[in-house]
Amino acid sequence: MKHFKLVLLVTSGLAMTAAASAADQSGPYVGLGAGLHMLRNSGVLVGTNPREMEFKNGPIFAGAAGYKWDQGFRTELELGYREGDVTNLITPTGPVAWTGSQKTWSTMGNLLFDLGTGSGFTPYIGAGAGLSWIGWKNGFKGPNSATFDGTDKKFSWQGIVGAGFNATDKLDVFLEYRYIGLNNATFPANATPATPVISDHDDRSHNVMLGFRYFFGAPPAKPEPAKPAPPPPAPMAKATPPPAPPIPQNFIVFFDFDKSNLRTDAQKIVSDAADYAKKNGKARINLTGHADTSGTAAYNLGLSERRAKAVKAELARLGISENNVVVMFKGESQPLVATGDGVKEPQNRRVEIILE
């Protein structure tokens, strides 16, 4: 418990001093961590005699491949290794010095949830379950006793609490605490016959790790402020010549990087366009979708089509007949801001709405 309190104290201190440096990542990632493995005492049966074992602290290593979802959840597959030496076997007459090393390999499936703060500091919680191969090696024995060795495969589990810090757009550094456990490991004596047997070994440990995660996806785009819709044209003064045809009214809707769903500000602009069409008797609405130059031309053409169709669907929801809406899409061929190839330009991720 005192180790758990220490980790919480350190994590809280880092939270107070962390600077806001980057937005939360998403997409696939790999991670690697290392730290201190603190084995708790374990009650065991040596044959039929109840005893207690004491262990030294040792190292722990873990590597993971995972995916972070937009909703804040992370799923990952992890491979771990941890180790600790035995020191004493506690008997009714007192401790007896033992020697040997406990080495454990594990594979876990983890589910974690990042508590987004809108800054470079991201606390998280999680849990995992899987299999562990727990082995006693190097003469696991006491004075004048049989040697116990071998490996037992057991279901194992862990609880996780930690915090990540954005070092760069793609790299996070993390500090975390884990409580790992498995039940009822059994090891025979290396003798003929293989008795006695050590059984009912409930392996429990506190673990503190420092490591990093590298994300392969592009960092999320920062939301761009929406451009206000231009005011409606002033009424034309009466004149003897017939009035000129009305100037088409334009609205522009912007999108996040590689997205075709409407943001809240974009929905407001589409709503303004629909209201204006209804109030001013606009019989035809032209929608033209565009994309920036990040990605292939074929992909951007399809992305611009999806964006235009998303605006059309929103206009239909607002009561505009689909027969009055014409959809066009230009991909990256008509940028609002001229750029080179492969450039993420927010002004080019748009749909232009022209009311005639």
User: How many helix segments?
Assistant: 3
Multimerization status: single chain
Helix proportion: 10-25%
Spans of at least 5 consecutive residues with low confidence: 1-23
Calculate Rg over CA atoms.
32 Å
Strand content: over 45%
Query: How many beta strands in the DSSP annotation?
Result: 15
Structural class, from helix and strand content?
Answer: mainly beta
H/E element order: HEEEEEEEEEEEEHEHEE
Q: Quick one: biggest sheet?
A: 11 strands, antiparallel
Mean pLDDT: 85
Distance between the termini: 71 Å
Describe the fold and architecture.
The protein has 356 residues and is mainly beta. 15% of the residues lie in helices and 49% in strands. The protein has helices spanning 2-17, 264-279, 297-317; strands at 27-39, 42-46, 49-55, 58-68, 73-91, 94-97, 99-114, 121-141, 148-166, 171-188, 197-215, 249-254, 285-289, 325-329, 350-355. Strands 1, 2, 3, 4, 5, 6, 7, 8, 9, 10 and 11 form an 11-stranded antiparallel β-sheet that branches. The longest helix is centred in the last third of the chain and has 21 residues, at 297-317. The termini are far apart. 31% of the residues are buried. Residues 1-23 have low confidence and may be disordered.
Main features:
single chain, 356 residues, mainly beta, eleven-stranded antiparallel beta sheet, four-stranded mixed beta sheet, 3 helices, 15% helix, rod-shaped, disordered N terminus
Quick structural gist:
This protein has 356 residues and is mainly beta. Helices cover 15% and strands 49% of the residues.
